[in-house]
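Try it yourself: sequence plus zinc ion, in.
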Amino acid sequence: MNFLRPFSVLLAALALTASLPASAAERIPVVASFSILGDIVANVGGDRIAVTTLVGPDEDAHVFQPAPDDIKAVSRARLVVVNGLGFEGWIERLAQSANYRGAIVTASAGISARERAGDDDHDEHGHHDHDAHSHHGKDDPHAWQDPQNVIVYTRNIAAALARLDPAGADIYRKNGEAYVGKLQELDRWAIQQFAQIPDAKRRVITSHDAFEYFGAHYKVRFLAAQGVSTDSEPSAKEVAALIRQIRTQKIKALFFENMSNPKLLQQIAREAGVTPGGKLYADALSRPGGPAPDYLALMRYNIGQLLDKIRLN
Ligand SMILES: [Zn+2]
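Structure, out:
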């Protein structure tokens, strides 16, 4: 009977790998373009996948330059997930450099995209004159600032992972729906919070136009010093117009962003006579241990900061 032993050991080993969660080494390598998306992907994929994030915490995806490690991560990936809407202008070149042949999934597919602020209702500031950053397209990429859009992201990611790894399809769907439940809960809480503040007070100044989706969803008006991308610079005329607006509308809620240069906003705050009210997490998570280490924490933190300040407007 001894001759059967190697077979039964092998069968037992096979049964084990089929029933247990994959060990770290067997996890499916997935790349997400930036930290907020990486967190969403990790929530859906659970322990079947290993997520690598290209643009990390407190970093700015608008001006990202891939390093050799990023190329290596993409070359090893079996799936790449991007935000889309022109946010990752660098992804095609990076995929090419990495000789990546897998799918590039657009998490925002199917949401109703907003046009970049300044393309429609900010004409008086002359945004049209120097809208030179056409590589960002006409869409506003910051869709993750509305949790209802992140529900779409979550389901797109679950579907993409299920296509890649059909054996895990049920798990991805369950993980995804559990996360959707948390997003709905967050959204209900946020709507209740903002409902307590009169519309006229809901005005906020930030560095760049990252909060248009947030503003549309929660009826908060955001005025930004820069355009929709941090790589654009406003004219002196636009800055002067913004300062006038802060003064005449007596706006007190002025925030820095975690991933962009605070210099311009500091100047505006000084000239408008407003004390900046801390930091909002716009396009990136904080580092672990910071106030916004994951998407749900980021939203709760931003909303708490905003509520504290817009009450004073
Ligand atoms: Zn941005």
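One thing you can check immediately is this: The longest helix spans residues 169-195.
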